[in-house]
Amino acid sequence: MMENEILTLVTFFPTIGVLLLLLVPGDRHDSLRSVSLIIAFITMLFSFLLWAMFDPVANGMQFEVNVPWITSLGISYHVGIDGISLLLILLTTILSVLCILSAWRSIATGVKGFLISILLLETGMIGVFCALDLFLFYVFWEVMLIPMYFLIGVWGGPRKVYAAIKFVLFTMFGSLLMLVAILFMLFEYQKYSGEYSFDLLKIMQMPFAYHAQLWLFAAFGLAFAIKVPLWPFHTWLPDAHVEAPTAASVILAGVLLKMGTYGFIRICLPMFPEATVTFLPYICVLSLIAIIYGALVAMVQKDVKSLVAFSSVSHMGFIMLGMFALNTQGMEGAVLQMINHGISTGALFLIVGMLYERRHTRLIAEFGGIAKVMPFYAAVFMIVTLSSIGLPLTNGFVGEFLILIGVFKFNTVYGIVAASGVVLSACYMLWMFQRVVFGKVTKSENEKLKDVSWRERMVLIPLVVLIFWIGIYPKPFLDRIEPAVKQVLERVSRAKTVEAERRFQIETELPAREAGSVGATGHVAGGENLCWK
Amino acid sequence: MSEYLFLVPILPLAGFLINGLLLGRLPRPVVSFVACVPVGLSFLLSVLLFFGLKGLPPDARVLEQVLFPWISSGFLLVNVGFLLDPLSAVMILVVSGVGFVIHLYSIGYMHHDPCFGRYFAYLNLFMFSMLTLVLADNFLFMFVGWEGVGLCSYLLIGFWFEKKSASDAGKKAFIVNRIGDFGFLIGMFIIFWQVGSLDFRVVMEAAPTMFVAGGALITAACILLFMGAIGKSAQIPLYVWLPDAMEGPTPVSALIHAATMVTAGVYMIARSNVLYLLAPDALLVVAIVGALTAIFAATIGLAQNDIKRVLAYSTVSQLGYMFLACGVAAFGAGIFHLMTHAFFKALLFLAAGSVIHAMSGEQDMRKMGGLRRHVPVTYITMLIAALTIVGIPGLSGFFSKDEILWKAFSSPYGHPVLWALGFVTAGLTAFYMFRLIYLTFHGKGRMDADTRKHLHESPKSMTVPLMVLALLSIVGGWIGMPHLFGVTNYFEQWMAPVMSGAGHDAVSHALAAGGGDTGMEVGLMTATVILVLVAILAARKLYGQTPELSTRLREKTPHLHRLLFNKYYVDEIYGAVIVRPLVNMSIFLWKIVDVLIIDGLINGFATLYNDISQTLRAGQTGRVRSYATVFVAGVVALVAYFLLG
């Protein structure tokens, strides 16, 4: 009974909250906060129910609902989730609760608008992860944009307008290309089957011509790459993060960036497998640049938030690389790392926000000796820092290890370059940590800082628990990811074989002596084997 | 019995959790009780397990316990599992035993510190990590302990985090270790993709068939694993963090940076002995790095004035010996020296701690002197440790070092040059050790009056551990006497099941065939002892009897002295060649590539768009007459086009 409604309930429950908030007078700040906290909390409970009802071994989409919406264009309300979306939905609902809790005191003006934006954003994010209809996907995708624009533009820092417009223009640029691609697919599908449909699963059954795939991959890929953000499309991110209020930064880093990687794994890879194989080397190189470049630039940042922003560029590079390694370990690691990055970087932004609330600055040089005055804070900061570095028994290690071992199998050189990012991440994180937390208290403003309050503990502790849970016993998560990843890989590996044959044919047309030598190495093995390449 | 195996590391973890979660809320006696009892229990359990293992026939001495699957993805499956065999049994005995003694010592040493609870929490976390490291049944779970001890080292070096030099040293240790771990990870990847498992027993069994002996792949894997060991065990070129690590409390230096953690690399190589025997080139690299580190660090030790720094370089040098042993395929000898070194080096550090305690925190030996009358127990025990490390016959260090030197000479993987490096190092060791003893305990006191007034022997809680370790330093070597003395080498016998297989058989055959030369063995041994005695006498002459001589010597060779005193300027070179260029490049990437080029391009588009709009705006005058004019002109043009075209 519940099976059919639960996804819709999770998606739109925050919207119900928005309607409720509209009824509360704008000056009743605490009631506004309580109402939205309760709404977000119930949404989270629904998502826990989703986890409980989810069948970890089943293949394909679960909780599917398919209701015609605009029949003349073949648009339907088609939703459903697999393990990847399940985990991302959980991440979204948990972070939303923590965000509302974290903004309890820091947002004092325009409380109503702020909370409405957060809840609307939550619906948009969950919607993107559920949508199985491209039109629906696009609608939710755009729905996210508007609240985020307001969150940065209204409640942001000194350069908020520049940052907000930059964020919107970048994203819009990408999503327009995506819209064109979606429409192209609609007409192609009409030619193929005689009916209009935006249905992802249906369109997936249709083979696209190789050339069409290239263009489609490029259009979707650009939209997603901007969102990830992949180097060199990343420059909106540091600006947006530095200017955004804490809650918006948490959502932005925690969930919005994952929209990009999610798009790749949900649309680009399974729908355009041949194009994936073609674009693969370019994306891998850009990811490697992101890993190293992000880490190096992060090292010399003076503002903690922009340091964390650049570290995100580096971490997202890892996720992209793992995904495009196109093997089980790499891709499972990438999906797990999406969750991990949401937890760790979300926690980092919350932590930085707490310091900002007390001191109204985020410059590293303004701090030092925080461990002396705020010991609990320092301990949590340490744990989160270690998780971001990827220390064993924290969540970051499991994801990073799987990604690296997968990438190493896929390409030894890529694996080695990526692994060096592990050293760099220790450099920039520990250096920052040392300058903020260790040392003597040199600034008199820092002498009387209060350690975290109970409300702030409520925000931090769940994340710390998740950090260790995924670090010590990741099995429940990996089990749910595995079937979904397998399906994507099956689709792509078929393309890999086709590509290999295509190359082989070209090579056999070459003079015989050349063909012999190149043909042997040109063959790309599909799936896993034990042999060393 | 194996079902209790997991308790060995878990007990200290429980101590850590209690002290860590209730930080600052427990009174000191409770904190020390909560911290020390689990470690003591771990030690007792280790003893029981040891005897349990001993009760089994040699070939069956393996206990395994798998708790739960940790990471599984595709056919990759890594368990949280523990493995007890003769090698790990020795390791847990040493780690929990020495660890327990140092826990007790710490109660007295850290008594005045306001962060007593935090200290013991970290120390327990370290015990957990180290015991996990040595008990893990696969490479990846071992890596948990491997990184875990690194973390604890970072936390404890920077324990007094308000001191910049302390937090700098902690950070340096972590990052340098990470460089090594990078190699370790890649080595692990090679092994996994070749063998399909990371489980020690599976890997060791399958390696001879899955790898081409002497091939590039196994050589690369072994050298990469060794890179991890270089970082953790402070060998050239990644040793630079260990001397700085002396910023931590002295018991930490004794436990982590001398007796246990830094020996993890040696343990790891002994654990992977099957792999290394498949890669003779990698063995040669291990031997060369070990021998060079041994002599290099010993020369630096000659010119240091900080009592702990001398001991730190001595540790680096002794670790070099252990790698030299591994590199000549005498893994058992390496582990033997690891054990005896744990006793005497822990003792040296704890005694140095007692000296520092007596000297009100002073560590500069130039301000000491004549302390033997004030701290007699410390003096006697430290003297015993010094005699042990230099290798006076009968003491534990003599047997373990002699075995290494003999194997370096006689093993099929050995070479006279390797032996010679070790031989010279033995002389240098004796010299700097007795320079330390004479500067600290003999001659006239050079401290100020205030310090002199406060000179006192340490409390019982500190001196008793010294005596226990002194006893171990004396007798610890008797289980591994050379065959030459006509007794059984119990240690070698005990380790035999771990060091078995085709590679080892070849080594022992070669040793039996060519190395049965007892005359040579006695000769080399005697030469070493004579060299050591001469070096001690030289130190006595220079620093005990006529201190002016040492000043003159220093003045005669100012460049050499400065070079040694400044540790060959290696830190400065690393700073200039690696750190500064990296930071400069990062600033370039940020300011130029990111802000100027990429963002400039994007903002340029925005500006361009704006400029075009501004230009076109000129047409939007708002005057109806000009719009009408354009409209009429357009109509005329269209009509003309259709009529004429």
Say how many strands of chain B there are: 2
Classify the helix fraction of chain A into a percent range. Answer: over 70%
Discrete helix count of chain B = 27
Order of helices and strands of chain A: HHEEHHHHHHHHHHHHHHHHHH
Q: What's the Cα radius of gyration of chain A?
A: 23 Å
Helix content range of the residues of chain B, please?
A: over 70%
Oligomer description: heterodimer
Unreliable sequence segments of chain B: none
Low-confidence stretches of chain A: 511-533
- Please report the distance between the alpha carbons of the first and last residues of chain A: 51 Å
Principal-axis shape of chain A equals globular
| Separation of the first and last Cα atoms of chain B | 103 Å
Mean pLDDT rating of chain A: 88
The main β sheet of chain B shows up as: 2 strands, antiparallel
Tell me which protein chains meet in the greatest interface and how many residues each side has.
A-B, 55 and 52 residues
Q: What strand line-up does the widest sheet of chain A have?
A: 1-2
Lay out the secondary structure.
The complex is a heterodimer of chains A (533) and B (645).
Chain A: H1 2-23, H2 29-53, E1 62-70, E2 75-81, H3 83-102, H4 111-130, H5 134-155, H6 160-193, H7 200-204, H8 210-227, H9 236-243, H10 246-271, H11 273-299, H12 304-324, H13 328-359, H14 370-373, H15 375-389, H16 395-410, H17 412-437, H18 454-472, H19 475-509, H20 512-522
Antiparallel strand pairs in A: 1-2
Helix pairs in contact in A: 1-2, 1-4, 2-3, 2-4, 3-4, 3-10, 3-13, 3-18, 3-19, 4-5, 4-10, 5-6, 6-8, 6-9, 8-10, 8-11, 9-12, 10-12, 10-13, 10-19, 11-12, 11-17, 11-19, 12-13, 12-16, 12-17, 13-15, 13-16, 13-18, 13-19, 15-17, 15-18, 16-17, 16-18, 19-20
Chain B: H1 7-21, H2 28-54, E1 63-73, E2 76-84, H3 86-109, H4 116-135, H5 139-157, H6 164-195, H7 200-210, H8 216-232, H9 241-244, H10 250-259, H11 264-271, H12 273-277, H13 280-301, H14 307-327, H15 331-358, H16 376-390, H17 396-410, H18 416-441, H19 449-454, H20 460-475, H21 490-495, H22 502-514, H23 518-545, H24 547-556, H25 558-565, H26 570-617, H27 624-644
Antiparallel strand pairs in B: 1-2
Helix pairs in contact in B: 1-2, 1-4, 2-3, 2-4, 3-4, 3-10, 3-15, 3-20, 4-5, 5-6, 5-10, 6-7, 6-8, 8-11, 8-13, 10-15, 11-15, 13-14, 13-18, 14-15, 14-17, 14-18, 15-16, 15-17, 15-20, 16-18, 16-20, 17-18, 18-23, 23-24
